[in-house]
Write a structure and sequence with these properties.
A five-stranded mixed beta sheet has the order 3-2-1-4-5, with helices on both faces. The protein has two domains: about 100 residues, no CATH class; about 100 residues, Ribonuclease H-like superfamily/Ribonuclease H (Nucleotidyltransferase, domain 5, 2-Layer Sandwich). The protein is α/β, with parallel strands linked by helices. It is about 50% helix and about 15% strand. InterPro entries: DDE_dom, Integrase_cat-core, IS_Transposase, RNaseH-like_sf, RNaseH_sf, Transpos_IS6.
């Protein structure tokens, strides 16, 4: 998937370097401005912010296309992300081996949000054999609703739902990398920019886990 860099003053290699550094190492935009200046690139922190928000979603879409096959046993959980001083919910799923499947930022934590996330993850990765979740009633109801839809679409495939805190340790541990990167970012001011930035962080995490194929080429290159 090609990413359009037309109309930008800086070369795409510079833009992608800046975006990758921000989402991989957890720095503030002012720190990144200084880091870029040390490398001979004068660019202000507001421009760096625009780059991250503009390109992270396209990079994430490219990464999903290049992702290696994942297992059919999933683990799903949410973690908290503060946006405009309020908590929002980052839905995340990994397979039994800890490989990232999908992610979605939501302003609400309810059945509708859970169902939307599961539909998105299945659209990207196919229907799994089973999904382990915690004791959340909303996640259970979302999956049950999705199973009802699967039953009547003629696929003949129903997802086995397992509610287990122990099995979900894998995804809970995986949250730590995301929180480690977001902590120094000094908070998100808008929901859209938070969702875009988190998409970039998730891709950097996938690269770190060796999930991307297509001759090993990173979407940041």
């Amino acid at each position: 998937m090609a990413i359009d860099f037309k109309g930008h003053q800086y070369p795409k290699s510079v833009i992608l370097y800046a975006v990758f550094f921000y989402v991989r190492y957890g720095v503030s935009y002012r720190d990144l401005e200084e880091i870029m200046a040390e490398r001979g690139v004068e660019v202000d922190h507001a421009t760096l912010n625009r780059w991250v928000v503009k390109f992270s979603l396209a990079i994430a879409a490219s990464a999903q296309v290049r992702k290696k096959p994942t297992a059919i046993s999933w683990r799903m959980d949410e973690t908290y992300i503060k946006v405009r001083g309020k908590w929002t919910y980052l839905y995340r799923a990994v397979d039994r081996d800890g490989q990232t499947l999908d992610f979605m930022l939501s302003e609400r934590r309810d059945t509708a949000a859970a169902r939307r996330f599961f539909k998105r993850a299945i659209g990207t990765n196919g229907v799994p054999e089973r999904i382990a979740i915690d004791k959340s009633g909303a996640n259970l109801a979302g999956l049950q609703s999705l199973n009802a839809s699967l039953k009547f679409t003629g696929t003949g495939r129903i997802i086995n739902i397992v509610q287990s805190k122990y099995l979900n340790n894998i995804v809970e541990q995986d949250h730590r990398f995301i929180k480690k990167i977001t902590r120094p970012m000094l908070g998100f001011k808008a929901f859209y920019s938070a969702a875009a930035t988190l998409a970039g962080i998730e891709v950097a995490h996938m690269i770190r886990k060796g999930q991307l194929s297509q001759n090993g080429v990173s979407p940041f290159k």
